[in-house]
Design brief:
Length: 263
């Protein structure tokens, strides 16, 4: 299935409410084609379990506690995948049996940078696997009245030694890529090398990926799922709604019975 064909048909179906069954293999082939196009794109291997987790968090009637629980499972997998891509150096330790073990150690120290507010949902997942990790924050606000959803930087707080660390930039949703590009621009302004930035993300789009790599070709992107596209309002389709609202309980109905759609 051609990439452009899948994207066009899927977005049209989502806008029109047309149902067509897409199985696990269908998604796997789409992801494989995208990774073949971008060498620095890493999409989590999609298993039946992974697809089941996405099905739960995308269901508009999923209650908030379930949304948080199953989102956290995906986020933990993403963080582990992102850390596995960092540079390592040989290391030797002495075991309790007085026999050396030849292994590896991280070459670079890590800092997490959350694109507030939705990115804060990923901080606990990083801290659960990287003890004592430092966390920076950036607040980027979009103009919701702008058809292109252009964004501006409102707040920045980063560790003083961030230029000497590898940055995991955290934001669960990547639509147009405007917020991520602004965040990366600020990281580079503060001395972070482009190839020391890994953008960690739950759901993205081909447009967002393409825009990000065109602006910053040396960064790495680790995501769990690529949706085919966006509607005219730049909402990801099929998407999952507003991740931050659903995770932090600020949507209209915190018990999952949503009264609106994004189509």
């Amino acid at each position: 299935l051609a990439l452009s064909s899948f994207r066009g048909e899927a977005v049209a179906e989502a806008k029109e409410g047309v149902e067509e069954v897409k199985d696990l293999k269908h998604y796997q082939e789409f992801h494989k084609e995208l990774m073949g196009k971008y060498e620095n794109l890493d999409i989590l291997p999609l298993t039946a379990q992974g697809l089941a987790l996405h099905t739960i968090i995308r269901d508009r009637v999923t209650a908030r506690d379930d949304f948080v629980f199953y989102s956290n499972r995906i986020i933990r997998l993403l963080i582990e995948q992102a850390l596995s891509k960092l540079p390592f150096v040989p290391s030797v330790v002495m075991t309790p049996t007085a026999v050396p073990f030849y292994g590896l150690d991280f070459r670079e120290r890590v800092v997490g940078v959350s694109i507030m507010r939705a990115g804060d949902s990923m901080v606990a997942g990083l801290r659960s696997v990287a003890k004592g990790v430092r966390i920076g924050k950036v607040l980027i606000q979009r103009d919701e009245e702008d058809p292109q959803k252009r964004a501006h930087l409102s707040y920045v707080k980063l560790p003083g030694d961030i230029a000497r660390r590898h940055v995991l930039l955290l934001d669960p949703m990547l639509a147009t890529g405007g917020s991520a590009k602004l965040a990366i621009k600020e990281l580079k302004r503060q001395g972070v090398a482009e190839d020391c930035i890994t953008f960690v993300n739950v759901v993205t789009t081909p447009e967002g990926i393409d825009g990000l790599f065109k602006a910053y070709p040396k960064i790495k992107v680790v995501t769990s799922f690529v949706d085919p596209g966006m509607n005219d309002m730049k909402y990801i389709l099929p998407g999952l709604g507003d991740f931050g609202d659903r995770y932090f309980g600020t949507e209209e109905d915190q018990h999952g019975r949503r009264t609106f759609t994004y189509h």
